[in-house]
Each structure stands twice: as structure tokens, then as C-alpha cells.
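Batch manifest line 462
LIGAND: flavin-adenine dinucleotide
JOB: complex structure
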Amino acid sequence: MQSNELIPTITAELPAVEELAAKLNGQLIRPGDAAYEEARRLWNGRIDKYPALIARCRTTQDVVLAVNFARDHHLTVAIRGGAHNTNGFASANDGLVIDLSAMKGVQVDPTTRIARAEPGVKIGEFIRATQQYGLIAPTGICSDTGISGSTLGGGIGWLMGKHGLAIDNALSFELVTADGRLLKASAAENADLFWGLRGGGGNFGIVTAFEYQLHPLGQVLAGMVIHPLARAKEVLDFYRDFGRTIPDDMGAEAFLATVPEVGPAVIIMAGYFGDDLAEGERLLAPLRRFGPPLVDLIQPIAYPDFVSMLDPLAPVGRHYHESAYSVKQFSDEALATLIARAEQMTSPFSVTIIHHIHGAATRIAPEATAFALREPHYIVIHTAAWEEGPAEPHIAWGRASYAAMQPFASPGLYVNFIMGETEEAVRASYRTNYDRLAALKRKYDPTNFFRLNQNIKPAVKV
Ligand SMILES: Cc1cc2nc3c(=O)[nH]c(=O)nc-3n(C[C@H](O)[C@H](O)[C@H](O)COP(=O)(O)OP(=O)(O)OC[C@H]3O[C@@H](n4cnc5c(N)ncnc54)[C@H](O)[C@@H]3O)c2cc1C
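JOB STATUS: finished
ARTIFACT:
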């Protein structure tokens, strides 16, 4: 239940609020409105914030109006793309949520192989739209995540080996800055901003359109194999060796999770994304033979259906807590520790995820874009997830798992997986790019108007 003290009001500003509501093409949602409860909810059900206003924008002009309103009335701004950020940056108590979820346009030009997408588009929606033309851009690994937040942080996913990160395929961004200007950033226009937006997150403005270079992609050979957790040591040993040898056309990620009708399990999701499915069969054969697995769901499949396979693991509204870190290489001891922690999971919904950063994504110079973590490595995420009851045992499991793994962790973590708001972790993620980002922040957002994010502080003028 919503408690009355928590319902914010900005009654003093009421005429201005009415004026904003009248001007928006979209909708201004206020506490007490029928749509408010639903509109304030995020993917992470553990986050329970009460914004003063939610501006559900339909057009770029709506975004400009909302930015100007927030600035003029000193409201904290939260930007809502796909609402997947575990920290809940997409909402703010007493603030103004600039909600982009209704901006859903995707245009695909099959001749130039360029897609233009609006910021409310989810990954699943985007890849279904481009796949109608047999085309694709790299995105994250599951369909409900927003293209907005995931691209702006970097965008790791199944196709990173072949085509790099989402940002490595971004051609331009249109954005509204803190002073309400509409700018374009590309290699030809505002090139400094273009550099910063490729990894710098929501620090510089609100992106209202993304342009991506597309690539041909037909049916893929992909899916998952499932083994009982009791065999995790040999399966993860195998995964470590298999992952080191796969070509750029492939991707493989591991999950330690509870699978209905199987119980605690280790899952390897993998795919071949090249042109020759017979070659894919050959490359995936060792993975399918090993064990053998209890379940083998690897099959020729449309790419969007493969991406949807993960959706049941992370439904909207469950309570989540993530602890994540990078690992350069897995020693035997590191894998043993990881497995021991998975055996202690406190909820059947919790999961440990291993992302493998490899291939084309790791052959781009660290200073070429804001995203600096270009060396081959793994990202491990302990996602504690539960639906009811106290949070504490689940969060404690995540934190203890994180602590147990720190001897094996390497410095710097992809910003989109940093939990909490720690300046130190943000600096470590951007490494030597941080100072250039801070200077860019001073140029485009000197008052740190966009600060509900993995924040880059405006550089102090010397
Ligand atoms: C289940 C799950 C799976 C994930 N898988 C992947 C993955 O495979 N690859 C990957 O790279 N990441 C992945 N992530 C992390 C994901 O990239 C981040 O959570 C990201 O913030 C989500 O973007 P969003 O638009 O959905 O989130 P939101 O919560 O809406 O936005 C998060 C933040 O991004 C910024 N932002 C969003 N939209 C805009 C915009 N239009 N303009 C400016 N700033 C904006 C804002 O700072 C905002 O607070 C995953 C997360 C979850 C929960």
C-alpha cells in the first residue's frame, strides 16, 4: 500500500503543472491518477519510489518540455527507457520521471542497412523489427531490456564476437541536453559527444533517437544445454576451455540457476551466428556431446526467439539484488568458489550469470569510445531474486558470494552492472577515459542535472 506521506505533491506549482500537461503530446501522470501506480513500477519490484510527476513523452518536443520544466522547478530528473536498471535509476522520489516508454518507433532502411529507433524500444521489439529484413544490430542478451540504457552503457550481447558492442554499431544519437537544446552526435557532428555517448550512459542528455548500422543475419543455430548443478565443476571446466576457442561467429554464456523439473542446474547458452549452419553444427557438437546434458535445446532458430529464451529467468516485478564484478581468467579455485556459492542460493529464482566478453568487442582501442573495458574477460553477476518474504537472506547470499569471489576479481566493471552509486567504481570502469568524460560532462551538463545514473561528475575548471 502507498502511504500518504510518501505521495509527493507540488501544489505550489499547480498552474505550471497544468500548463505542462496541456502542452505534452503524451501524458502527464500525477499521484492519484489511475495510471500512476502502474507507471511508477520498474522491472525491479524491490524499488518502490514515488515520483512527483511522470511525463510519458510521445515526441522529442515532449522531452524538451519535460527537461525545461524540471530545470525551471528544480526537480530531480529520472530517465526511463526500458526500466531495467537494477538500481532503479529510472525513477526518483519527489522527482520528475521523463518516461520514454511510449516512444516506440523503429524505421529500417534495408538499402543502407541503417535502423533508426526511438528510446522506448525494448531489445526484443528492435530485433524483431530489423529481422523482418534479415538484418540485425548487436544488443543485449534478453528481450525485455531497453535499447536505451543498454546501448548508452555499451551493450554487450550475443553478437559481440562478430560485430562488437551495441555502441560499436551506433552511427548517431539525437539528444536533448540539460539546457533543452536538441543536438545530433555522430562522427561528423559533435564528435566529442558521439565519443562520450558510446559508453558514457545517461550522463550527457536524453537520447530521443538512435541510429545503428545493421548486418545480415538469417536463421541461427542456438539454444541451451542443461546439466545438474552436481556436475557443475566438470561443466564449467569444459565451458572455460570451450569459450577460449570459439570463433567470433559464436557466443557462449553460463548460468547457475534452478530449472523447473530439473532443479539446481548449470546452463550453457550458446549460439552460432555465421552463414553456414553445417559449420555451426560442427562447432557446437562438443558442447552438445559433453556430459551428455540432461536437456539439449540447441536448434536452428530465428534469432529473436533465441533471445526470448532467457526472459523467464528475469520477469518484470520480481525483487532483485545484483552483485557483479569482472574476472580476467577463471582459476580452478575461482570456479570451485563460484559453484560453492551457487550451492548456497537462498531462492529458486536466484541466478549466477557468466558473460564472456570476447571477439570483435575486444579488438577496439579502449580510448576509441568511452567504454574502456576492451580486454577479453568475464563478467560475473550474482542476481538474488525473490517474490515474497524478507529480502535479507537473499541479499546476504549475493553479498557473501561477491565477497568470496573478490580474490579472483579484476579491476573495472561494465557500468551497466555496477550496483549502487559509487564514484570509485565508475572511475574504475572508465579507467583513463574518465577525465575526458568529466570534461565532456562539464561542457554538456555542468550542473550535473542528469545525475541519477552511474554518475560522471563535471570536471572542476582549473
Ligand atoms: C535481466 C537483465 C538483463 C540484462 N542484460 C544485459 C545485456 O545482455 N547486455 C547489456 O549490455 N546489459 C544488460 N543488462 C543491463 C542493462 O544494460 C542496464 O540495466 C540498462 O540500464 C537497462 O537499460 P533500460 O533502458 O532498460 O533501463 P532504464 O532503467 O530505463 O534506464 C537506466 C538508465 O539509463 C539511462 N537512460 C535510459 N534511457 C536513456 C535515454 N534515452 N537517454 C539517456 N539516458 C538514458 C538513464 O541514466 C537511466 O536511468 C541487463 C539488465 C537486466 C536487468
